[in-house]
Design brief:
The complex is a heterodimer of chains A (about 260) and B (about 350).
Chain A (H helix, E strand, L loop, with lengths): L2 H17 L1 H25 L7 H29 L7 H4 L5 H31 L10 H23 L7 H14 L14 H6 L4 H13 L8 H27 L2
Chain B lengths: L4 E10 L31 E11 L4 E5 L6 H8 L7 E6 L2 E2 L4 H7 E4 L11 H11 L4 H14 L15 H13 L5 E5 L7 H16 L3 E6 L2 H7 L2 E6 L2 E6 L1 H6 L5 E7 L4 H9 L3 E5 L5 E6 L6 H10 L4 E7 L3 H9 L6
Parallel strand pairs in B: 3-8, 3-9, 6-7, 7-8
Antiparallel strand pairs in B: 1-2, 1-4, 4-5, 9-10, 11-13, 11-14, 12-13
Helix pairs in contact in B: 3-4
The chains are: A mainly alpha (about 260), B alpha/beta (about 350).
Amino acid sequence: MNWRTFYALLARDGHVARRNLLPMLLQNLLQPLLLTFVFGRILTTSGMMKGEFKNVLLPGVMAISMVLSGVQAVAMPLITEFQFTREIEDRLLAPIENGWLAVEKIVAGMIQALVAGLVVIPAAWLTMGSGVNISFRNPLEFAAVCLLVALLSSAGGLALGCSVGQTQIGLMFSLILAPMMMFGCAYYPWSALASFRVLQWAVLVNPLVYASEGLRGALAPQVPHIALWIVLSALAVLDAALLVLGLKKFQKKAVS
Amino acid sequence: MGIGIRIEDLHKVYTSPPPSAARGAGFSFVSQRSPGTKEKKKKFEVVALGGISLEIRAGEVFGLLGPNGAGKSTTIGILTTRTQPTKGRAFIGEYDVWKQQVLAKRLIGVVPQRPNLDFALTAREILLFHGAYFGQGARERERRAQELLEKFQLTDRADHMVRTFSGGMMQRLSIARAMAHDPEVLFLDEPSAGLDPQTRLLLWDIIRDYHRLGKTIVITTHYMDEADSLCERLAIIDHGRIIAQGTPRELKSSIPGGYLLRLRFDRAPEELLAEFRKLPGVSEVRTADHVAADVYADRGGPLIGPIVTTAQAAGVELHDVHISEPSLETLFLHHTGRSLRN
């Protein structure tokens, strides 16, 4: 392991991310904020939804932002760089094992996911106005969930980025990411699916469910949520699985 | 110091399309085979290298010459850790390229066939980050980047994003990048493809300069003049095998006669070819289709008269004559029966 090279690779990704900061923020924040405004402000202020819904929504929106930005931060550049131009080649020729380049991508993705998640909290809070009741009484629990969700999103991004071709990016969004967001318990707690038994069990394959429920448990424990130990174990298992899958696919894609 | 290269019985069979080829659509984790069909899909298999052994000496300029698809890029791909050999081994210095990748990568610089520059960066940033990947300190890489930008005449565009660059500029920057960490071995895969003649001469000068520092340089090309004027030794590759190797001079002198006269007739019966073989200075006469004939001889123009006379005497009409002086092109033709450019 060559730390200087690893750090230089990370510095390169940081440099590119800073250069694209504004479009990136818009891309990752606009949609959640619009959602927050419509569901958390308009519908609650007009009385069509209870004020308590704000506390259901905020952790969910944060989960969506983290997952989307982590996946995009890793997958999108990889898809481009592995295409015809093979832009990634100069980094594959850097004096470090190919696997560490994938790890570097994951670390960079995690940082972006964490930043996106942390930015959403105040932004969504402001958008929703008064009546938000979230707590930071369990900082360790919150940190653990955040880290596992960040790893989930960037490892998922690695696996997706090494599996999807440039022509299927649209398909990736509509076939994988859109259903994931709708059935990710971001806009409702998992317990709200109780009257849809089959669906309630089926959505458990969706990693976003654990991200939403975990953040809900950490930030708004008064809202019903899946128990912390289940969330943490599920996230750990999914993280490990996506990590192994992503690294394997990356190694395969890195050499011909 | 100088680092040599050794290749032992290298084989490469691609079982999926190589990365440079257009990849088809479809998620790769979705099986595309329809279930129930008993007949197995024909397996994709391309033999790119069929057992190549080679020794490149430390500090020499070595050329791999051959037509497109001969296996040149695959050889470079294996030597630069980018392609996994199916069989055989390759060494850069003492390091096994596949097993000791990181150590091998430290020694090499690579100019790919198509520029693969980092499109998210400017020209200067590409050189700076490249230096950083190889552990250069901040001041060192800044000095080196500036030096290379000047040398490759890129200073006025140094802080522009490379996606706006022309093909020639990208190629120059690719070469600058490959040299940025001062590698002991420099690989250039078709470096002058797509360059204008002027830039090509600049490139040759730069390669010669770099060679003077005692570096080993490996070039692939299908330009005869490039191989002829740059390389100290050459291997001619065709269909994944080495068909000849040596210095350009040795290779050229190995062609029987040296001159090649390509003749076309309305017909070329065996008796006529036999007559040609008797002409003074002719060492070999070949035909593939009894219309055209390749005459290898130690002279060119002076043979035309006797050839015309002989043909007329046999009642055969001569349609076309082409004389090639001793060259690697002729050599390639001699060994493969095909021209390099086909």
